[in-house]
Design goal:
single chain, mainly alpha
């Protein structure tokens, strides 16, 4: 029962962060050549959602991934942990990047679609394909998976610190010092490591409290989470006034950690089936969002300049992507289970 309610919580959080990440990529003002006075207001509203609240989405994904990797971790479990991530992260990363590359190659050779894409003619070559797969050239949202793969690869090094209480504190301090003084580990983003390592520290040091294995601490846990989230709001305003990137990262970390620790898993109802397609929708959402935003001005040049329409389209975009993506996912899951396994990572 403990694991069932825990994984139900993971599904809920993944669903929530997936909604937010769609809003991050759903800006539509710059795609519409209009001079309506209401567009400035629409821009501010979309910016507040996409660059404010929604920016906790990817930190949330890193946080959940770090917590899951280090949850119940021991050295003996490392091969098993890595094996699962090869299936759930590495293989989908390769498959999706190749499919995106192939789609762009085909689309770039079709006049109308190629013009809509605006990428020119993309050649089908071995080196270009390899570069597209490794460096997610045509699948920009997979920068997250790229970073996650690197973090999973160095997880044993992180665990050397995380297995001890003093080491956990030391690692968090070291990573923050690197971020503040712009001393990133080569290739790996410092902010990604902050979210991943902090979640690992919680999983190894405070898991019994976070997962509510101790009786009588629920009220304290909720209160602590609420205070942490409120603290993130304060830090956000501070980061804006001081134009501080480290403070902005701290704001996002506090928001995610506060939500994760402050929402009891037993308080969440059972997740619905449509909420379990989060990774698939994360992988496909960008192309559908861009297509919808680009095609509407061509079909409805008049209404697409309406500020109310633009804002409404932005707000319902997550629902539109779910309405499109879930039936596709269900079809693939039922009709092509092997392909679905590759695309979803066995989720």
């Amino acid at each position: 029962m403990q694991d069932k309610t825990f994984h139900n919580k993971v599904t809920w959080f993944s669903f929530f962060f997936s909604l937010l990440v769609i809003w991050v990529h759903s800006y539509n003002i710059e795609l519409h050549q209009a001079t309506s006075p209401g567009l400035e207001t629409v821009y501010r509203l979309q910016h507040a959602i996409g660059e404010g609240l929604s920016q906790i989405a990817v930190p949330g994904f890193f946080f959940i991934s770090g917590y899951l990797f280090f949850r119940n971790f021991t050295w003996k479990k490392l091969p098993q942990k890595w094996g699962r991530r090869i299936r759930s992260v590495l293989i989908p990363y390769i498959v999706w990047n190749f499919l995106y590359y192939l789609g762009y190659v085909i689309g770039s050779h079709l006049p109308w679609i190629g013009n809509l894409m605006g990428k020119g003619v993309i050649p089908f070559q071995l080196f270009t394909a390899f570069d597209a797969i490794v460096h997610f050239r045509y699948n920009y949202v997979f920068w997250y998976l790229y970073q996650l793969i690197l973090l999973i690869a160095i997880a044993p090094i992180l665990y050397l610190f995380l297995q001890f209480a003093f080491g956990r504190i030391l690692l968090v301090i070291l990573v923050w010092v690197m971020v503040i003084f712009h001393k990133n580990v080569p290739v790996i983003n410092g902010d990604a490591m902050i979210y991943f390592a902090t979640a690992g520290a919680l999983a190894l040091g405070l898991d019994s409290w976070v997962e509510e294995r101790r009786k009588g601490n629920r009220i304290l846990q909720v209160a602590t989470g609420a205070v942490t989230v409120m603290g993130s709001v304060f830090v956000y305003h501070l980061s804006v006034s001081r134009n501080s990137v480290p403070l902005l990262l701290l704001c996002r970390l506090l928001a995610v950690a506060g939500l994760w620790t402050g929402i009891p898993k037993t308080s969440l109802p059972e997740a619905k089936d449509f909420m379990k397609y989060n990774f698939f929708l994360y992988a496909i959402h960008f192309v559908f969002v861009r297509f919808i935003n680009k095609i509407i001005p061509r079909i409805f040049p008049g209404i697409s300049a309406n500020p109310v329409f633009l804002m409404g389209l932005y707000l319902i975009m997550p629902a539109l992507i779910w309405a499109i993506g879930v039936p596709i996912g269900k079809f693939l899951k039922k009709r092509t289970p092997f392909l679905w396994s590759l695309l979803s990572g066995g989720r």
